[in-house]
């Protein structure tokens, strides 16, 4: 396919290995709509989770596709290429939720920070996914930022939830899939808290990578859960949704575990069965709900200070993380197909960050 052609990566909803970049023919804009060229997106385990939860949680509804197929969502940057909206201008750049496509047509409702896409098909998904933030021109750190921003936003919310829920100290926090960006962000954030001790659990092959980041007080492979001996009460943040990992941690920490939080599904092979797990019942973490809660907690008066604090924390994390990750940025449909193939084949090198620029001109 010519790299100048508009295209969508379509995947069979019931078989993620069946996918293809197919030419797209965007319809003329209706009044009140605008079209963004997708400038760059990053693929992480999170995108696979979106696909796995596509039917149940509505992720397939974000971007319409032919019957039986889906367009997988990803976070990234886009630039307005065409507009039929009086308050949205060509050339404006936004951060938000995009399909693995060259273009996204939106129905913008302008806000103080950008716009909300009010397209009717997006109503099933939480507002969190329809919020597009206006950003400045491209800068080189945006490539890594494309991968880290969505993860780190969840890390900050998760860290807030972990520390706010108890005053007991020292507090131990055990984090699985410790090499994932979301987990690293969580550990980095918790590292700033006094009397919070973090324990990372990871695949044996990823242990050296996780150790080298210095984010955790202690790092162990999944095979050594039995050696965990955290001080004080413990919280478990699970990003694997793997029965064996969750069960091993619950048994090992029995009596000391005060919360078990299900965050992700990087090693999910079958639905998690919480029956028979000792300790607290696992609770689900959902970043959009945590965001709502955090906004309510600070109120309208604290919103700007919170936004600045999050932004500054993200900048610090992105600078620090630049030493851990190797970013490759490729352009066009073949690059997208390769990156998606590598993602679903997994597990890949945790240091590799794959950014794709769908359209050659962006
Ligand atoms: N609930 C929420 O609101 C929320 C918010 C953000 C993220 N999440 C979830 O958190 C998880 C991590 O997301 P992320 O963007 O941080 O991912 P990421 O950086 O791409 O995570 C990569 C890590 O996941 C593990 N992994 C990935 N693919 C695998 C495979 N095929 N087989 C075995 N292990 C694999 C490996 O870690 P190890 O070897 O260390 O296990 C790998 O280093 C995702 O499931 C995502 O959906 C949830």
TrEMBL record:
Q: What is this protein called?
A: DUF2855 family protein
The record lists the organism as Streptomyces malaysiensis subsp. samsunensis
């Amino acid at each position: 396919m010519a790299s100048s052609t508009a295209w969508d990566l379509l995947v069979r909803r019931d078989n993620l290995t069946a996918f293809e970049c197919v030419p797209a023919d965007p319809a003329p804009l209706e009044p009140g709509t605008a079209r963004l060229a997708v400038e760059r997106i990053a693929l992480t385990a999170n995108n696979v989770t979106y696909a796995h939860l596509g039917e149940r949680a509505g992720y397939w509804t974000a971007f319409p596709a032919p019957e039986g197929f889906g367009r997988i969502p990803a976070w990234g940057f886009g630039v307005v290429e065409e507009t039929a909206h009086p308050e949205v201008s060509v050339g404006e750049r936004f951060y938000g939720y995009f399909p693995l496509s060259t273009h996204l047509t939106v129905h913008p409702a302008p806000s103080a920070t950008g716009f909300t896409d009010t397209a009717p098909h997006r109503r099933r998904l939480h507002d969190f996914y329809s919020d597009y933030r206006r950003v400045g021109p491209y800068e080189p750190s945006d490539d890594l930022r494309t991968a880290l921003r969505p993860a780190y936003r969840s890390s900050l919310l998760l860290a807030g939830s972990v520390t706010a829920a108890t005053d007991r100290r020292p507090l131990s926090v055990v984090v699985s899939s410790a090499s994932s960006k979301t987990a690293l962000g969580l550990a980095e954030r918790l590292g700033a808290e006094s009397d919070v001790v973090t324990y990372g659990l990871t695949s044996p092959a990823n242990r050296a990578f996780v150790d080298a980041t210095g984010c955790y007080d202690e790092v162990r492979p999944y095979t050594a859960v039995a050696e965990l001996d955290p001080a004080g009460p413990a919280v478990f943040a699970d990003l694997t949704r793997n029965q064996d990992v969750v069960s091993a941690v619950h048994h090992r920490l029995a009596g000391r575990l005060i919360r078990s939080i299900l965050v992700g599904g990087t090693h999910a092979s079958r639905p998690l069965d919480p029956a028979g797990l000792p300790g607290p019942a696992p609770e689900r973490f959902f970043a959009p709900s945590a965001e709502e809660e955090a906004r309510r907690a600070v109120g309208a008066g604290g919103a700007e200070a919170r936004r600045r604090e999050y932004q500054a924390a993200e900048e610090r994390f992105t600078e620090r993380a630049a030493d851990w990750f190797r970013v490759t940025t490729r352009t066009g449909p073949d690059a997208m197909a390769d990156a998606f193939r590598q993602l679903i084949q997994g597990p890949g090198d945790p240091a590799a960050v794959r950014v794709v620029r769908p359209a050659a001109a962006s």
